[in-house]
Write a structure and sequence with these properties.
The chain is of the alpha+beta class and 151 residues long. It has a single domain (4-141), classed as Hsp33 domain. It is built from three helices and seven strands, in the order E-E-H-H-E-E-E-H-E-E. A five-stranded antiparallel beta sheet has the order 5-4-3-6-7. Strand 3 (60-67) and strand 4 form a beta hairpin. Helix 1 (23-33) crosses helix 2 (37-57). The longest helix is centred in the first third of the chain and has 21 residues, at 37-57. It is globular.
């Protein structure tokens, strides 16, 4: 299956649904940066999240995560055309697998140490089309650049 972003709208009901499959983009980013499995999984989730937000908001989206865990953070951005890029601070993290289900990614060991009560900060900046100023809601959670075209 190729990478794709599907948006379905029901304007009369005020609903919009966005679905994203970004396995190719994730594999390309991992190979380009030489990332270990845990770092690659964290970046893949960040890239996919940025694509979903940009597709849903029809705007450019920058997502920055700063955390106390071994990943230390990530930065991704995407726009409504499907262009996406991102980076992680730590390239060599292997963790992120649940022992009861090794096919599922568990980011908790990467984002926070076992003694942290606060995982870090998440910042999402949306820059609307038409030259309007960007806004930046910032969330604090208590719990090498890459460019790829995505269509």
């Amino acid at each position: 299956m190729s990478d794709s972003l599907l948006t379905v709208e029901a304007p009369a009901a005020g609903l919009r649904l966005a679905l994203c499959c970004a396995g190719g983009v994730a594999r390309s980013a991992s190979a380009r940066h030489g990332l270990a499995a845990g770092s690659a999984a964290a970046l893949a989730q960040g890239l996919t999240a940025a694509l979903l937000l940009a597709g849903h908001q029809r705007t450019r989206v920058d997502v920055q995560l700063e955390c106390n865990g071994p990943l230390r953070g990530l930065l991704v951005d995407a726009d409504e055309s499907g262009a996406v890029r991102g980076l992680v601070r730590a390239k060599d993290l292997e963790g992120g697998r649940r022992s009861e289900d090794p096919t599922r990614f568990d980011g908790r060991p990467l984002f926070a140490s076992r003694h942290d009560e606060r995982a870090g900060a998440l910042s999402v900046m949306c820059a609307p089309a038409g030259g309007l100023s960007a806004h930046n809601p910032t969330f604090t959670n208590s719990t090498t650049d890459h460019a790829t075209s995505f269509q």
